[in-house]
Amino acid sequence: MGWFWKVGLLGGKGQYLIGAGGWAYFRTPGEPSLVAYSRMFNFVEVNSTFYEIPAQSEAERWRRLVPDDFEFAVRVHRSITHEHRLQPSIESLENLERLRRISEILRAEVMHFQRPPTLKIDRVHSKPSQPHHINKYGKDQNCFGAEGQLHTSA
User: Fold this and answer.
1) What pTM was computed for the model?
2) What string of H, E and C letters represents the secondary structure of the chain?
3) What total number of domains does the chain contain?
């Protein structure tokens, strides 16, 4: 089990969100694991999305089970990171769109791309891209991505 934390600024004050990767192991008799988990933590990474992309109805159910201020992060499916190795393909783009929709339903601001250890990113050739956009809540924000060359080693 991995522990994660996210630090953000809300209203000029720091806020720590502390949680774990997944909630299925968090068992309390008589209630769903996610409900019990959300009473102890305010943040979770949905790590099951690495293995299987859930139906939208399942993500809607998860969102309903937790308090309104509970935060999710979504781990990107392994087909994108490990099979297609972050290279565009019809399958990887379709899966990324499905995950984008799941993230939207969960109001997740973070998508976790877990790269395989053999996938190296050449930071020397990286450059800022798209310095400005409107986020999903209609707020202006600066956003810096990276365009770079990906190198793999055998």
Assistant:
1) 0.71
2) CCEEEEEEEECCEEEEEEEEECCCCCCECCECHHHHHHHHCCEEEEHHHHCCCCCHHHHHHHHHHCCCCCEEEEECCHHHHHHCCCCCCHHHHHHHHHHHHHHHHHCCCEEECCCCCCEEEEEEEEEEECCEEECCCCCEEECCEEEEEEEECC
3) 2
